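The following block was generated as part of the benchmark described in Methods. Ligand: zinc ion.
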Amino acid sequence: MRYAAPSLVKGFTMKSLWGRRLATIAMFVNAVPIEAQYSVQPNIFPPGTFFVDGIPVGCGGVTFVLDPNLNDVGQAAPGIIRLNPNVLGALPTTLKLFWVSHECGHHVVGFSENAADCWAIRLGRDQGWFPPKAFDEMIAMFRNNPGDFSHAPGPVRVQNMINCYRAP
Ligand SMILES: [Zn+2]
């Protein structure tokens, strides 16, 4: 009985075999968008959907993108703010909000790093999420930051922000 006709084997007909193939193909087809959804979609946050430690955060019509491969804490581009979740994740909420606000500041004041810092720290002051004592965390974060061609050394940036914070 090595070559039993399929119809003689209970429950194993050509029809049910085809049914199994269809089921397998359907699962495979479904698996592609589900996988893409998990690897891409949770990292893209259209306006009104982004949160920082449970706090809703927006920047006009800007879409937030979490990119663990970003070679910086954040980056502003037209219509987009990219943030590195690995860098931000290690910071206290106040400093996370500062960086998001800094990148939003670029959308408002342009390329200048000092202007974006100033805009961000005044927003934090005026909205109440950056109290004066938060400068302790800010100073610690920037203490060993040497700066680069577009960014002043950390302590210079902090002093600039303290001046902005104190000004009206
Ligand atoms: Zn910047």
